[in-house]
Amino acid sequence: xxxxxxxxxxxxxxxxxxLPNGESEEDLERLLSEGVTFDEDTEALVQHYTSSPLSTIDxxxxxxxxxxxGDLQGALAVFAEAAQDMATAGVELGLGRHFACADFCNQAAxxxxxxxxxxxxxxxxxxxxxxxxxxxxxNAPPDIRDALETLTPFHPxxxxxxxxPEEADEVISAEQASTYIQTARTILRWARNIVLxx
Length: 198
Hints:
The chain is an all-alpha fold. The chain has a single domain (25-55, 68-195), classed as Up-down Bundle (Four Helix Bundle (Hemerythrin (Met), subunit A)), CATH 1.20.120.330. 66% of the residues lie in helices and 0% in strands. It has ten helices and no strands. Helix 4 (72-94) runs antiparallel to helix 5 (98-121), helix 4 runs antiparallel to helix 10 and helix 5 runs parallel beside helix 6.
């Protein structure tokens, strides 16, 4: 009996929280947190989730809660790019391309922070490959700024200044690359909680 009631409550929740394009918030959260598979057309998915408004402000809504100058659609699009980069980082790790994995973790983290900037300021922040400074510009908490600093060295321009490209995958072990994936996921979870709950 409780399973039936639970299912009814779930159905009721999903009926109340359906986006204008027919998808549920749960589907969108799954896509943003887990990324996409090779079977999915990523261009179509990004277009699908960014072509129609995900929320509108009715007269009853508190307009003061809406970010001033923010761009929710832009924030969601940039966050979707971050999720794609996270999926690619996992693929690169599986292929043994450890630097490419770390590089995609760096890119995913940068795009996650930029998605918060889009939501809060309506534009991407100026970026000079210092992820910690980028995090500071959007008021990221100290633990997120520390995580961002961990991934900063893996921008190719910076990394290749110290390491020849042919040695890049040998300098980073699989264990380190796996740790960088976890670090990037922490940053994406932080950004997701801001962008998806706007």
